[in-house]
Design brief:
The structure holds 2 protein chains of 2 kinds.
Chain A (H helix, E strand, L loop, with lengths): L2 H16 L22 H13 L3 H4 L9 H10 L5
Helix pairs in contact in A: 1-2, 1-4
Chain B lengths: L8 E3 L2 E3 L1 H6 L1 H5 L15 E2 L4 E5 L4 E5 L6 H6 L7 E4 L9 E4 L1 H5 L10 E4 L6 H12 L3 E4 L5 H10 L4 E4 L1 H9 L10 E4 L6 H10 L4 E8 L4 E5 L6 E2 L12 E4 L2 E5 L11 E11 L2 E7 L4 E3 L2 E3 L1 H8 L5 E11 L3 E10 L8 H12 L8 E4 L15
Parallel strand pairs in B: 8-9, 8-10, 10-11, 11-12, 22-23
Antiparallel strand pairs in B: 1-2, 3-9, 4-5, 6-7, 12-13, 14-18, 15-16, 16-17, 17-18, 19-20, 21-22
Classes of the chains: A mainly alpha, B alpha+beta.
């Protein structure tokens, strides 16, 4: 698993743990809102990832995209990762 | 140096206007330090016998005030074409120039009995600092300056100078309580202003300084209007809305506090000016929810960072906290917190602990998404926590 994907998944898992939710098996097809994230959970996740990864892909987009699954969400972070 | 604003000085009962100051500018400048800082004549501990001269890039005050000038005289002095311009601290944006009269400048000055030594921790070119300077002048007291350095150095300087009366922001008072240097300090007068004072801080100050009279001041620096509360409780009594404190008429409109200040340039036809402070009435008390300009919208819910700060500050491991709103693609805005921990506490799980602490006590939109533990919070020269 590449670094970005790993970071996104582990941040998500940490967040669920904080809310006392046991994350099930997270696959690319898992629907984000089925993980147990509440309505503000995504907002929290994006805020933390901006700190740890150093960018917020959603603010870099020219058109709004709303990811439905974990795979789509990770894909957005991978797409906008700063090129080394 | 470029002059911005206008200057005046008082010499006895005579007021000298801007033109005269300008013609003497080079002479006066000789008594200021290079750059933009104010030099208090006489060094750090100042016997206020003759002059305060200050010119910085933003605002200027030139005052030549003989020892023992009474506040009533200052307030009564005619104010011809002379304008006093002080700048606001700019904690919520660019510093704004505010025109004052001598009467409005002297309004915060009280006639007090007894010997006191005043501490100056504010910029004397801003209203809060100038009020302290005028207060010391009015009562012929000594003034001890402690504006720079570490908090420990500043407290030590104040104590060495024998300071018994001190006016500071809640942010600075929290630092003073944290400094570990307050044991046995016989303060007899404590004033809080410039930010909202919460009950926890008022109680902590009362416990640390049992002999002190503690008042918190509500001031709208845009208007020069100020009133104070000295009953040890946060907020102010709702009866102030019908019985104007010191004649200052207050009104709550759409949840925002307005004060009557007809001479203010911002006043509407009825003479009232908005303070931009949002008020929440609880029983017989009017409490501050936050600044109108600082209100955030998190997923459609309006939240005030100040309310969240008040809850987080109650955690024993928190010395102080600043909560700010951040743009967010999913919720419009979201809150984040910067926390300065109490000295010596373990911080490895603090961020996590604080989030669950907040989640137990606040509605979901008010819970900060992230807690960052910092060694020291950002603070402005005016001693306020900065939200930038």
């Amino acid at each position: 698993m590449d670094v970005v994907k790993q970071r996104v998944i582990s941040t998500l898992v940490d967040l669920l743990h904080e809310d006392d939710i046991e994350p099930g098996d997270l696959t690319d097809d898992t629907v984000l809102l089925d993980t147990g994230l509440d309505s503000l959970g995504l907002a929290v996740l994006v805020t933390r990832l901006e700190t740890s990864l150093g960018y917020d892909p959603f603010s870099l987009m020219t058109e709004a995209v709303y990811p439905r699954t974990v795979g789509e969400f990770v894909g957005i972070y991978e797409k906008y990762a700063p090129q080394a | 140096m470029e002059f911005r604003g206008s200057f005046a000085y008082v010499d006895g009962d005579t007021l000298h206007g801007f033109d005269e100051i300008q013609s003497r500018a080079s002479e006066l400048k000789a008594t200021t330090t290079a750059g933009s800082t104010l030099k208090l004549l006489g060094g750090t501990t100042l016997e206020l016998l003759e002059a305060i001269v200050g010119l910085d890039g933003h605002s200027g005050t030139v005052m030549l005030v003989p020892h023992g000038v009474q506040p009533s005289k200052l307030a009564d002095a005619p104010s011809p074409a002379t304008r006093w311009v002080l700048f606001t601290s700019g904690s919520t944006g660019e510093p704004k120039p505010v025109a004052h009269t001598l009467a409005s400048l002297a309004r915060g000055v009280r006639e007090l009995d007894g010997e006191r030594v005043w501490g100056l921790v504010y910029d004397p070119l801003r209203l809060a600092g100038l009020t302290v300077v005028l207060q010391a002048l009015a009562s012929g007291s000594r003034l001890v300056e402690a504006r720079a350095g570490s908090i420990v150095d500043r407290v030590d300087a104040l104590r060495t100078g024998g300071v018994t009366a001190l006016s500071a922001t809640p942010t600075l008072w929290r630092q003073i309580l944290q400094s570990g240097r307050t044991e046995g300090w016989a303060l007899d007068r404590i004033t809080l202003g410039g930010e909202v004072s919460d009950q926890l801080l008022l109680d902590s100050l009362a416990a640390a300084f049992p002999a002190a009279r503690i008042t918190h001041v509500f001031a709208a620096s845009e208007t020069g209007v100020a009133f104070s509360v000295g009953d040890g409780r946060e907020g102010f009594p709702t009866r102030y809305l019908t019985e104007p404190p010191r004649g200052i008429e207050l009104d709550v409109r759409d949840g925002v506090l307005w004060v009557r200040s007809p001479e203010s340039a911002l006043a509407g036809p009825d003479g009232f000016v908005s303070t931009e402070d949002v008020i929440e009435i609880r029983d017989d008390r009017a409490l501050f929810a936050g600044r109108l300009s600082g209100m955030a919208n998190v997923g459609g819910t309006k939240v005030f960072p100040e309310q969240v700060e008040r809850v987080i500050r109650q955690h024993p491991a928190v010395a102080d906290v600043v909560v700010t709103a951040k743009k967010n693609p999913f919720s419009g805005q979201i809150l984040v917190a910067q926390v300065e921990p109490t000295r010596g506490v373990a911080t490895d799980t603090l961020a996590k602990d604080l989030r669950s602490w907040a989640a137990e006590r606040l509605s979901t939109p008010m819970v900060p998404a992230q807690f960052t533990i910092v060694a020291e919070l950002p603070r402005s020269d005016a001693g306020k926590a900065t939200r930038a």
